[in-house]
Amino acid sequence: MKEIEEIKSKLEENKYISNDQINTTLFLAFALKKPILIEGPPGTGKTELAKTIADSFGRDFFRIQCYEGITFEQVVGEWNYQKQLLYLEMARENKEDLTIFSDEFFIQRPLLTAFSNDKPSVLLIDEIDKADEELESFLLQALGEKEITVNDLDTFKLKNDLVVVLTSNAQRSLLDETKDRCLYLYIDYPDYDREVEIINKRVPIADDNLVKDIVEKTQKIRKLDLTKKPSIRATVDWVESLIALGEIPPTREALENTLNVIAKNEEDKEQIINEVLNNI
Q: What is the pTM assigned to this prediction?
C-alpha cells in the first residue's frame, strides 16, 4: 500500500528502521485517530518511535514521563495559588469582584498543552505502567473522548491532529479500558537482519563485517539468562566503541574490554565472557 510505504520511507529518513507491523499500526493510528499502546522489553525503540514520528511528519512533540507517584497536577496542570492569593488581596483592597478560577490562574502541563496546541502534534506518555491506576483512569477521557475536564475550570476539547503514543514495560497490567481505546503494538528485540540495518543507519561509517560480527554476538548474548539484556542502543555503543579504539576487526581482548557497554553488572559480564566470548 502506497501510504504505508511512505510511512516506512519517512521513518527511515530519520534513521528509524521499522517493520510491516509498525508501519501498518502507524497508518491506522493516522487513519482512525486512535492512540497507540506500545509494549515490549526496555531498549527496543518504543520511545524512539514516538520521537521519530514527530520528526518524520513535522509535528510538535510533547512528553509525559511517568513514574511512581506522578500526580494529576504534574500531567494536566495546576492552579497558581500565589497568583490567586495576590489577586484576591488586590481585589479586596479595591473592593472588586474577581474570579480566580480561570485560564489566567492555571498553569498548563504537557497533557493539556498538547491538547491545546494549534499544530499537528505527537504526545508521548512514556512508561505509563509506572503511574498508578488512578491517573490511568483519568486519562481514559482524553484517550477515548478527546477531551480533558479540569474541575472548577472547563472541559478542554482537542484542538489539533494529535497522535498519542503510550509505552509500557509491563511492570503492571494496564486497565482493560486503556487497552480498548488504543491500537496495540508489541516491539521486541529486532531479528538479525533488522538489527544490522539499524546499526548501518546509526553508524554509517562502520565496516560491514564489524557490524555483522557485533550484531551476531549481541543476538547470542540476548539468548542468555541475564539480569538485563542489551538494548539496540547498546549494540550501537559497542560498534562505536570498537571504532573509537581502532579495533577493526576486534581482538578477543578488545571485545572483553568493551563489554561495559553491553553488560550492566559483573554477573552478566562474566556469563557473557564464559558463554559467548570464550567460544571465539
A: 0.89
144-172 pLDDT tens trace: 999 999 988 889 999 999 999 999 998 89
Contact between 17 and 201 (Cβ < 8 Å): yes
CA dist., res. 183 & res. 237, Å (int): 32
Contact 268, 222 (CB under 8 A): no
Is residue 241 over pLDDT 90? yes
Letter string b/e over residues 42-51, b meaning 16 or more CB atoms within 10 A of that residue's CB: ebbbbbbbbb
Peptide bond into 204 cis (omega under 30): no
Phi, psi of 209 (to 5 degrees): -65, -35
**What are the grid coordinates assigned to 159, written together?**
484542538
Task: Report strand pairing: 147-150 vs 154-157.
Answer: antiparallel
- The three-state secondary structure class of 167 is strand
Q: Strands, DSSP E only, in 161-215?
A: 162-168, 183-186
Is the C-alpha dihedral spanning 59, 62, 65, 66 positive or negative?
negative
Contact (CB, 8 A) for 241 and 258: yes
d(CA 41, CA 80): 39
SS3 264: coil
H-assigned helices in 127-175: 133-145
Task: Tell me the per-residue pLDDT of 186-226, one tens digit each, with 9 for 90 and over.
Answer: 999 999 999 999 999 999 999 999 999 999 999 999 999 99
Cell matching residue 147: 477531551
Residue with cell 478527546: 146
Distance CA 61, CA 53 (A): 9
Distance from C-alpha of 136 to C-alpha of 18, rounded to nearest angstrom: 28
